[in-house]
Structures are given as C-alpha cells and as structure tokens.
Design brief:
This protein is an alpha/beta fold. The chain contains eleven helices and eight strands. It has two domains: about 230 residues, TIM Barrel (Alpha-Beta Barrel); about 30 residues. The structure holds 3-methyl-2-oxobutanoic acid.
Amino acid sequence: MQTVTSIKKAKNGTPLTVITAYDSLFASIFNKKIDMILVGDSLNMSFNNKPDTLSATLEIMIYHTNAVCKGAPDTFTICDMPFGTYTDEKMALKNASRVYQETDAHAVKIEGGVERAHIIKALTCNSIAVMGHIGLMPQHVRSEGGYKVRGKTEEDTLELIEDAKAVEKAGAFAIVIEGVKADAAKRISESVNIPTIGIGAGKDTDGQVLVWSDMLGFFQEFQPKFVKQYLDGSEIVKKAVDEYVKDVQSRAFPTKEHTY
Ligand code: KIV
C-alpha cells in the first residue's frame, strides 16, 4: 500500500495511478489495483446529478469517504475538501481534522495555489497530509464563468509554476494538475520535487487521475476530450437490465436454480 513517503519517492518514476470512487462497492473493485483512490467532490455531479461540485458538503464527503475506506482498506485514500470548508486556516484545520477523526482517509485535497498556500501549511504543520490541486479548479467554476483550460500563455504558465512551488513549499505531498496544456503541465511538473497527478494535462505528469464513471463509460451526457473510456458501462448495464425485464415478464426468471 502506498504511503505519503512512497508517493513522494515516485517522482519521475513509474506513473502513479489514481481513480475516483464514491462508494464501497466500486472501491473494493479498485482496492490494491490502483495507487490512490480520490473521493472527489465530483461525486456531486456524477452521483448527484448537480451542475457543479459546489453544493457538496463536508458531511457528504465524510459519508462517502467512510464507504470508500471500508471497501478499499488497502489503498491510499484522499478525501476532497468541499467548497467553503477551507476558507481560512482555523476553519480548514477544524474541518480537515474532522475528516481524519471521522474517517480512515490518509489525506485531504485542497484546490488552490499561491492564494491557498497558507491554508495548506496550516494543515501540514498540524500533521494532516495534503494533496494540492491547481490549474482548472472546478470549485472556481461560478466565479470564473466556466471551466477554462489553463497554461495557454507564457504568463499563465509562469503563474501555474508559482502555484505549484507554493503548494510544494507549504508541505503538500503531491499536486493534481487539471485542465492544463500539456507543454505547460510538463514545465510545472519539472519545477517541483513532489509528484504531479494530471487530469487533462497530457502525458508528462508523474501520474494520472480519472473520474471512475467517465473512465468506465457510465457518465453519458458529456465526454471530455481528456477521458479515455475503458468500458461501455452504461450500455452493458442497460442490456443486462433489458434482459432482466424480459426474463421477469416472460417468467423465464426465476428458474428452479434460483428457487428455494
Ligand atoms: O473531484 C474530483 O474528482 C477531482 C478530480 C477531477 C481530480 O478533483
């Protein structure tokens, strides 16, 4: 099982594998297969059909993190701190401490660069492991008027490099880089000594993360360019459900085999 120490050592090594999970069942399937499981606040969209992540609460994240930790006890697990739960050091410490005390999560994740470094420091100084998250930050969707790919200009790339350095200096053990042009993400990765985990950030980060329902083809409404779909989950499940309905209606199920 990965630890903060082994994850840090993975810098420039075999890419780290990260997948989101929100429930015990899927977490148990991913357990021991993947380096880290992220209980992302993306669950608000993929599990709750909300338009963005902003209405996820700490209670919701704690509930799902507990489920994931139960299903994947042998996998390093990270709980996403939801919007509005880390606006100052005191609040962040109180809420991240609740994650440690009420779940078995190994770390929390926080969105933000230079402007949030003091929050990350407040947590890491108090023995809470933090994964940073820079680039396209979904919790900023309303304030920024949409999801915007970053690192398109030299100025923006330099800003992101400063973000990554600040997050590293504040004590984070790894950084998610989301929605950043591949060349910029490569330069960001090269500018820090902790692993970078990319999502929509090209191939030159120290690892990759995907949302499980995108990767397994369960989220059909929208397929981002950066997602590779490894399974046509929705279609497979729909076919199985159609067959079940047909069997029940024709009394082909249950047979003797399924009967006491
Ligand atoms: O909430 C989430 O799933 C995330 C990943 C997209 C990195 O933050």
